[in-house]
């Protein structure tokens, strides 16, 4: 009976604190997927010791320490891809060409979207507005913004994966800029 109470206590803790734990993990590792993995690993390592945490108000501190230790273990165990060589490679010059090419490709692929979809994508991802702010700016409901964004991103993913998008046309590009 006590064991099920401990399980419920841990499950309740995870449900109530998972967002805060994920934010802490995001400060430790740059990749969002790695942050999710870090939280999951920390939870797996903490669960067997949950009953040993006498003061549950200190559980967040315990979890952060587990995440820091786990991240340190990952860092120490990483495989280094350095290979000693007798000759130094030529230095590459970052002239920004790749970044400009990526922007141009993104501008090109955005042209496949309907104007409203393009507006939602630009406001949410480029303008970094929340769903509610985007809805207010466009005069839509938040549900419409979410569904429009979902369909638009699915379409963009498909176009990028299959390379079936065309090069930008000035009139479409002008439309996209007005939409932003």
TrEMBL record:
<dbReference type="Pfam" id="PF08281">
    <property type="entry name" value="Sigma70_r4_2"/>
</dbReference>
<dbReference type="InterPro" id="IPR007627">
    <property type="entry name" value="RNA_pol_sigma70_r2"/>
</dbReference>
<dbReference type="InterPro" id="IPR036388">
    <property type="entry name" value="WH-like_DNA-bd_sf"/>
</dbReference>
<keyword id="KW-0805">Transcription regulation</keyword>
<dbReference type="GO" id="GO:0003677">
    <property type="term" value="F:DNA binding"/>
</dbReference>
<dbReference type="GO" id="GO:0006352">
    <property type="term" value="P:DNA-templated transcription initiation"/>
</dbReference>
<dbReference type="InterPro" id="IPR039425">
    <property type="entry name" value="RNA_pol_sigma-70-like"/>
</dbReference>
<comment type="similarity">
    <text>Belongs to the sigma-70 factor family. ECF subfamily.</text>
</comment>
<dbReference type="InterPro" id="IPR014325">
    <property type="entry name" value="RNA_pol_sigma-E_actinobac"/>
</dbReference>
<keyword id="KW-0238">DNA-binding</keyword>
<dbReference type="InterPro" id="IPR013325">
    <property type="entry name" value="RNA_pol_sigma_r2"/>
</dbReference>
<dbReference type="InterPro" id="IPR013324">
    <property type="entry name" value="RNA_pol_sigma_r3/r4-like"/>
</dbReference>
<feature type="domain" description="RNA polymerase sigma factor 70 region 4 type 2">
    <location>
        <begin position="104"/>
        <end position="156"/>
    </location>
</feature>
<feature type="domain" description="RNA polymerase sigma-70 region 2">
    <location>
        <begin position="14"/>
        <end position="79"/>
    </location>
</feature>
<dbReference type="GO" id="GO:0016987">
    <property type="term" value="F:sigma factor activity"/>
</dbReference>
<dbReference type="InterPro" id="IPR014284">
    <property type="entry name" value="RNA_pol_sigma-70_dom"/>
</dbReference>
<protein>
    <submittedName>
        <fullName>RNA polymerase sigma-70 factor, sigma-E family</fullName>
    </submittedName>
</protein>
<keyword id="KW-0804">Transcription</keyword>
<dbReference type="Pfam" id="PF04542">
    <property type="entry name" value="Sigma70_r2"/>
</dbReference>
<dbReference type="InterPro" id="IPR013249">
    <property type="entry name" value="RNA_pol_sigma70_r4_t2"/>
</dbReference>
<keyword id="KW-0731">Sigma factor</keyword>
